[in-house]
Design brief:
4-stranded antiparallel β-sheet, 2 helices, 7 strands
Length: about 140
């Protein structure tokens, strides 16, 4: 199944990029504060961050990867446990997992995703999973 994972690929295209999560770990969206409803690139990063399910650290880029050993139920359980471990209510884990799975399904493997509050968009395409770009080193 295709899922969002933390990645450093595509970092630096925006001046406020950061990558503290573990490369390749599953990620989720973190709740955001009211400061970012109109300004996701303000002082607080919560409107543009993905959070690693294991490390609980953030990154501003996530990669769509195909992870054949993980089922939808596995992802939902991992998300629920991660939210609980971080002190967030896990009541919305099912809905969040369903939303992310549906969004990721429409993107190609290797797509680099960025977040603007509730909107996710493709920032770039990696050559890691979709083939090398001719003339690129």
């Amino acid at each position: 199944m295709k899922l969002l994972t933390a990645t450093a690929y595509g970092q630096g295209l925006r001046v406020d990029d950061f990558h503290w999560a573990v490369e390749g770990e599953l990620v989720t969206l973190r709740a955001f504060c009211d400061l970012h409803l109109d300004r996701p690139h303000g002082r607080c990063e919560c409107g543009r961050v993905f959070v690693g399910l294991g490390s609980h650290y953030g990154t501003t880029t996530a990669m769509v990867r195909h992870l054949p050993g993980i089922t939808e139920d596995d992802y939902r359980d991992a998300l629920c446990h991660s939210l609980d471990a971080q002190g967030w209510p896990a009541a919305d884990a099912e809905a969040e997992a369903t939303r992310l799975i549906a969004e990721v399904e429409r993107w190609p493997v290797g797509a680099i995703i960025e977040r603007f509050v509730d909107r996710l968009a493709i920032r770039a395409l990696s050559d890691a999973d979709i083939g090398r770009v001719p003339g690129r080193h």
